[in-house]
Write a structure and sequence with these properties.
The chain is of the alpha/beta class and 428 residues long. It contains 14 helices and 20 strands. The chain is globular and about 70 Å long.
């Protein structure tokens, strides 16, 4: 036991039937595993470890990637079955918090803030064929694991999805909106939903040839349409019940020539319409569009406005973006729509505020705004413990250092920005 004055963090752990996996991590056999985090009223820190030596708890965290312990009943009992099911969600919490200052001895779960899920290569191919977003690639590369944090916001989003609530996920840079989108897509596909996942709506506004559609007066962007069709094709390949109409549209669009821009755009629009019809017939359909607000800004394309005068084309004037951002008609068909904003996209103050509001443009008023908060001190503590376990020690963190104090300092330095926290943990 180690006592450090002027701290208020108490950690204890118990495990039954655990063994060392050779990397300094405990791989638990089936049995009860519990890690308790308590707030001490005497303002001293007590650290009680499995082997009764200072600082070894976090290096022997019982949530290793190779865990073969108990799982959620909906996921199966063996590692192979869990891999076939997709993401392996840890159901064990890292800890509990009791507030002795209020005189309440009832333990309050830290909740999703300290839960991690595993998205291994098998699960990625079978549930996220569109590929990992860069932020998640960086996280996996930095930690050397395939684990990602499951937060309170993820549980709230899933609960609302099941109640057919459409949402606009908003928040500061580094708040984890993209990872929440990935968690949502994976979970929905495991539950049998038909998911149209757009990892980056901003890619549908840049770097494409463009042609005026004569019938509508809007712009066709065939390169953007092909990208959407490739995402749709990836989803078709993993679907247990592929839609024949989607397969026909994807094949027709991707096989069209560069001289037929309207053909490929029409095919992409048919994929959206097919999803709406599927929802109208009672199917569970989910649209998840990251960087949703980029479809309300400008593209990098220009049109001639007069002699020696050119202007940027608005994303809403392209047929593809206009259809994809029209949450009103999509939701009315029965589709559940989740759009996540990106702070890399700058909109006017009034337009940004109207997204998801009652007077939003393009039908966005049907999206209920859900705020994604920056990482809290408890969540940062979970990240520190995760990195400590994943990398078999952070090196610079001496066993006598209180991880709770470290997490509070990281919170002050980064303001809870997940990207900055990851970068600091990587160099510790």
């Amino acid at each position: 036991m180690v006592e450090i004055a002027k701290n208020s963090f108490n950690t204890s752990a118990t495990a039954s039937g655990a063994r060392d996996d050779g990397n300094g991590l405990f791989v638990p056999y089936p049995g009860d595993i519990k890690v308790d985090v308590k707030d001490c009223s005497d303002r001293k820190t007590e650290v009680v470890n499995l082997n009764r030596s200072p600082g070894s708890l976090l290096k022997r965290l019982p949530t290793a990637t190779k865990s073969i312990g108990p799982t959620h009943p909906s996921i199966g009992e063996t590692l192979d079955s869990r891999l076939r099911a997709g993401t392996v969600w840890h159901t064990r919490k890292l800890g509990y918090l009791s507030d002795s200052s209020t005189g309440n001895d009832t333990a309050t779960e830290l909740g999703e803030s300290c839960r991690f899920g595993i998205l291994d290569e098998v699960a990625e191919l079978s549930l996220l064929p569109e590929g990992l977003p860069k932020s998640l690639e960086d996280e996996f590369a930095t930690s050397g694991t395939r684990r990602m944090m499951i937060r309170d916001i993820d549980a709230r989003l899933w609960d609302k999805i099941q109640r057919r609530k459409s949402m606009l996920l908003d928040g500061e840079p580094g708040a984890g909106k993209t990872v929440s989108c990935v968690n949502l897509v994976v979970r929905a596909r495991k539950a049998g939903w038909h998911v149209l996942y757009v990892p980056s709506a901003q890619k549908l506004t840049i770097e494409s040839s463009y042609h005026r559609d004569e019938s509508s007066g809007m712009w066709d962007t065939p390169d953007h349409a092909r990208l959407l069709l490739k995402w749709a094709r990836a989803a078709l390949e993993i679907s247990s019940e592929p839609d024949a109409a989607d397969a026909e549209a994807v094949g027709e669009g991707l096989e069209s020539s560069d001289r037929e821009p309207n053909v490929v755009v029409n095919a992409a629009l048919r994929v959206i319409e097919n999803a709406k019809r599927r929802a109208q017939s009672g199917g569970k359909v989910l649209f998840v569009v990251d960087e949703y607000n980029s479809m309300f800004g400008m593209t990098d394309m220009h049109e001639v406005l007069g002699p020696r005068k050119r202007g940027n084309i608005e994303a809403g004037k392209t047929r593809l973006c206009a259809a994809l951002r029209d949450a009103s008609s999509i939701v009315k068909s029965g589709v559940v729509y989740v759009g996540a904003t990106s702070k890399a996209v700058q909109l006017s103050y009034s337009l940004n505020k109207s997204l998801g509001g009652e007077r939003g443009r393009g039908g966005s008023e049907v999206l209920e705004r859900e705020q994604c908060q920056l990482f809290s001190t408890n969540e940062i503590l979970g990240m520190v413990q995760h990195y400590e376990a994943a990398k078999s020690g952070l090196g610079a963190v001496h066993p006598s250092v209180d991880r709770h104090q470290l997490s509070m300092r990281l919170r002050v330095l980064t303001q809870g920005n997940g990207k900055e926290i990851r970068q600091l943990c990587a160099i510790l």
